[in-house]
Design goal:
Layout lengths: L95 E5 L3 H6 L14 H7 L4 E6 L18 H13 L3 E6 L22 H22 L3 E6 L13 H18 L4 E6 L7 H11 L6 E5 L8 H15 L2 E7 L29 H16 L4 E6 L12 H11 L16 H4 L23 H4 L10 E4 L2 E6 L9 E6 L4 E5 L1 E2 L4 H7 L4 E9 L2 E10 L17 E4 L5 E6 L9 E7 L5 E9 L4 E12 L4 E9 L2 E8 L3 E15 L5 E9 L6 E12 L2
Parallel strand pairs: 1-2, 1-8, 2-3, 3-4, 4-5, 5-6, 6-7, 7-8, 10-15
Antiparallel strand pairs: 9-11, 11-12, 13-14, 14-15, 16-19, 17-18, 18-25, 19-24, 20-23, 20-25, 21-22, 21-24
The chain binds calcium ion.
The site of calcium ion has 8 residues, from loops.
């Protein structure tokens, strides 16, 4: 996931009924319906491509892994939610309903408070659990601090943060998905930087260090009482990991991490994680490499941001293919959707109203809920689909009234995406563009820390929530009329409904009379009329095209109405029938001449009966013309009153000459036209003229 506004966009549990059994249960998935055959796991030491076994495990024995004592499956539907949520059918009871909440500690240190649905301040993980969340994903960076101890930001997520989060999650029955980036800061398809401490290690030593780091982190999580349900060995590792870019090395590192997970958290699943499912063949090729190098993993996880990552149908195809071919579980480890286009922390967001991205849902709380519901639905119906984790559902504004106020907190507590202190480690990106949160409008909590109704989708997808289906966003109406034509406003507009369907709904236009519309139709331009359907605002944009007072304005009737005058020796000058060379329609005026200085001509039309202010335009394209003198002109009673210079610059490059607002008195004769003279470049000057317009000026 990309965390900031930047030039490239390549850049995502049932209230525990008692805590007495916290250490007495089992963290293993409770149903086996989607599990791969056990025989599909390659032996960890198979073949020559397996990692070397020369590493000595840390001397202390692993701390036994804690287990949850209570079922995490919600037993009751949450009541009172206003959103429409379509039930996801055949949802497995143990389906992973995850939220990445990595930034919570830095947020709280910055003064952020989180509330429950009753409006009371409450541990945010309890609110997640009450809403149907059963997994929390947390990223772990090796050492996101500079030599003076200043955090790089992005939550300053080292293992200490993960332990704090893991303990609080365990207390409310939530398991951890530990997301090792194996970097000191953000790792994604754009960068997979090696931790400073490992920078000079060769691949075998790096694999050993990675194994020991993973072993140590997981042991500390176990010792602290966190319940590790899944471990990601790398984050969005599209062909790179920890500074390595060959599959032999990447997979050696993955296997080193995996081995530590098997030893320390034998009940946990091992996940690999990739992004960009929309890239044809990418996931098949990654999975093939993992198989070729015998990577020991259980879950092939994907990021899925609907803005950039293709359709859910495609996601299903590519993940199901991996699940089928290699007998792996699959999941979406990161997804999110904007609940508002607005920014709340004075740091621009990756998604806003005008973002040039796929927008399959409105940027509303209902739209966010529908997007999340549909991702859950898609994964639940994939082969071996085991879950979905929402990315950074708790990352909201730190609440200051200005950027400067927030900046202090981002710097001090690491609650922005990056701090200035990251410059030593990542000078070209984080160290340059550091700042706040670029996804605060995609969180599952509002800017004041109150949970959005969309958070309860994790519970409600199991049951469905039949709220009334209402319009949530209206589509502006747009149409064009010719000047003088009657304008009649539409009685309905298209609405984006809360079930994501489209419907026509009745609309009321404000403060507009028939007389206003009649006047509008006499003027040219685009007019906005405001209205509403229910409480939702909507606009109607009416474009009035000026009446064209010329005869045969696009030369579709040959030269009828026009006079073509060859003033020198233009070899070819006529109306040509060739749609591909016309600006509109099939025909245009064509000219060509081989000899130098032979092209000079006019194309003009005489118009009578005008009075008032008018504008004229005409278009040309051409090439090989050398030095030129080309202009549109207007003559009134034989005298040139205005010209507009024009240029030719190659095929398909049309230039329009426009003369605006010339005056004509009653009884005067008007001639409009284009004058063309070219020296030529020896290759034969050529050109095309089309689409003349004469119309009353504004
Ligand atoms: Ca922001």
């Amino acid at each position: 996931m990309k965390r900031k506004m930047k030039k490239h966009l390549s850049l995502f549990l049932a209230l525990l009924l008692g805590l007495t059994g916290l250490l007495g249960g089992c963290a293993r998935e409770t149903t086996e319906t989607s599990a791969p055959p056990e025989t599909s796991l390659p032996p960890t030491t198979a073949g020559t491509t397996a990692p070397p076994e020369t590493t000595v495990p840390p001397t202390e024995p692993p701390v036994p892994q804690p287990k949850l004592g209570e079922s995490l499956v919600p037993t009751e539907k949450l009541e009172g939610n206003p959103l429409y949520v379509k039930q996801v059918e055949y949802l497995p009871e143990d389906f992973i309903m995850g939220v990445d909440a990595s930034s919570v500690i830095a947020e709280e240190e910055s003064g952020v408070k989180y509330y429950n649905f009753a409006g009371e301040e409450q541990d945010v993980f309890a609110t997640l659990a009450e809403s149907g969340v059963n997994y929390v994903r947390v990223r772990v960076w090796n050492n996101p601090y500079d030599a003076q101890g200043n955090g790089y930001g992005g939550g300053n997520n080292d293992i200490e943060k993960a332990i704090l989060i893991g303990q609080r999650c365990a207390a409310v029955g939530i398991k951890l998905l530990v997301d090792f980036h194996y970097s000191d800061f953000w790792a994604d398809p754009g960068k997979q930087m090696v931790p400073l401490e490992w920078k000079d290690l060769d691949i075998d030593a790096k694999a050993d260090a990675l194994y020991r780091f993973t072993w140590d982190c997981l042991n500390r999580l176990n010792a602290a009482g966190a319940v590790v349900g899944m471990v990601q060995v790398g984050n969005e590792t599209n062909g790179a990991l920890c500074g390595e870019t060959t599959w032999a090395n990447i997979t050696q590192l993955m296997n080193a991490g995996s081995r530590a997970v098997r030893e320390v958290c034998p009940d946990a699943m091992v996940a690999v994680h990739f992004a960009n499912p929309e890239r044809a063949g990418a996931y098949d090729s990654y999975a093939l490499e993992l198989d070729r190098y015998h990577v020991d993993y259980d879950v092939f996880a994907s990021s899925y941001y609907p803005y950039w990552h293709g359709t859910l149908e495609n996601l299903s195809v590519v993940l199901s293919s991996v699940a089928d071919t290699y007998h792996k579980k699959v999941m979406v480890a990161e997804t999110s959707y904007a609940y508002t286009p607005e920014d709340t922390d004075f740091n621009g967001n990756t998604i806003g109203e005008d973002s040039a991205v796929t927008k399959n849902y409105p940027y509303t709380v209902q739209g966010q809920a529908n997007s999340l519901r549909d991702v859950i639905d898609a994964v639940a119906h994939m082969r071996n689909g085991i879950g979905v984790a929402y990315w950074e559902g708790t990352w909201i504004t730190v609440g200051g009234a200005s950027r400067a106020e927030n900046e202090k907190k981002w710097e001090q507590f690491g609650s922005g995406w990056a701090s200035s202190y990251s410059t030593g480690y990542d000078p070209d990106d984080a160290g340059k563009y550091y700042g706040g949160c670029a996804v605060d409008n995609q969180a599952l909590f509002d800017a004041t820390g109150h949970p959005l109704p969309s958070l309860q989708v994790f519970n409600l997808v199991r049951y469905g929530n039949e709220a009334e289906i209402v319009p949530q966003e209206l589509e502006d109406a747009r149409f064009t009329v010719n000047a003088g034509e009657e304008i009649s406003l539409p009685e309905t507009v298209n609405a984006w409904m809360s079930d994501n369907s489209r419907q026509e709904v009745a609309v009321e236009w404000y403060n507009i009379t028939d007389e206003d519309l009649a006047q509008m139709s006499q003027r040219s331009g685009t007019f906005e009329i405001c209205g509403a359907a229910g409480e939702l605002p909507v606009s109607c944009f009416v474009t009035v095209k000026p009446a064209n007072l010329l005869q045969n304005d696009s030369f579709e009737d040959g030269d009828a109405g026009w006079v073509l005058t060859n003033l020198k020796a233009t070899k070819e000058l006529y109306v040509e029938d060739k749609a591909g060379d016309s600006l509109t329609g099939n025909k245009h005026v064509h000219f060509w001449s081989q000899a130098a200085n032979s092209v000079e001509f006019t194309v003009e039309q005489t118009v009578e009966g005008l009075a008032g202010s008018y504008s004229f335009s005409i278009a040309i394209m051409g090439g090989d013309c050398g030095e030129t003198d080309i202009y549109a002109y207007v003559k009134v009673d034989g005298e040139t009153v205005a010209t507009a210079p024009m240029t030719v610059s190659g095929y398909g490059s049309w230039d329009t000459g426009l003369i605006e607002g010339f005056q004509v008195q009653e009884g005067q004769t008007v001639i409009v036209g284009i004058y063309v003279r070219c020296a030529g470049e020896g290759a034969g000057a050529w050109g095309k003229i089309d689409d003349a317009m004469l119309f009353p000026a504004g």
